[in-house]
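Input chain follows. Return structure tokens only.
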Amino acid sequence: MFHGSMVALVTPMREDGAVDEDSLEALIEFHIAEGSDAIVAIGTTGESATIDETEHCHLLRRFVEIAAGRIPIIAGTGANSTSEAIDLTRCGMQAGADACLLVTPYYNKPTQEGLYQHFKTIAEAVPVAQILYNVPSRTACDMLPETVQRLAPISNIVGIKEATGDLERGRRILETCGDQLDLYSGDDATAMELILLGAKGDISVTANVAPRAMHQMCKAALAGDRELAESLDRPLRALHRDLFVQSNPIPVKWALHEMGMIPPGMRLPLTPLEAPYHDRVRDALKQAGVPARVDV
């Protein structure tokens, strides 16, 4: 349903934590101009954990309004409460999002049966296209391939973002249910390899700062051109690594501020990138050929 480089967009904030909607509009225009294939709104990188439901729904409407059909919008609507996830997913559908991305419930650590019932209930309650999202490093909850296989026949579950970086797991999902749903990487460092195996794209943090390069790399990998994909991915590898020197989205928001694209704000309990990491992220941006300042 979706393919290529899908940027997991930051939510730009001023120093007081208020969302900067002017910067948001500029970022969306930047990604349209630079060739990103879709935008994920208010996901993990968008600081969904500190955005309340009213604000969440308002921002999803703004994403759709600004994009105006020029780029697909995938709304992050996951929660660790099934009823809350239903409400957010309904907001995403009513806002006009092309699909919703639903992370596995965090903190309460459901069983595999609980995960199956959670996602099945949301899919039955809200008839919008839905993408599952497995990121156990953040949620302490791992949705196993067997559970993905059980969910795959549900018609409006159209994909899964698999962020473990485990290529063998990705291969297994492709083999067991790749004809029923699309697989997307959620790990920039292994995205190229997963796409070459058969995934349809990458929901990317790196694409925030290097959208055109990520689009080109994903396009080459989707075409099966390993040599070209590797040559495009090589300069990005330091970014894939160093945008995670502290918890995402701390480094990528610092990088975007350094590029002159957003204010420096984020919401507690996240705090700005610590000074010892500044040169490391700057060097990664240089290796990727990202300009020090970007006109938007």
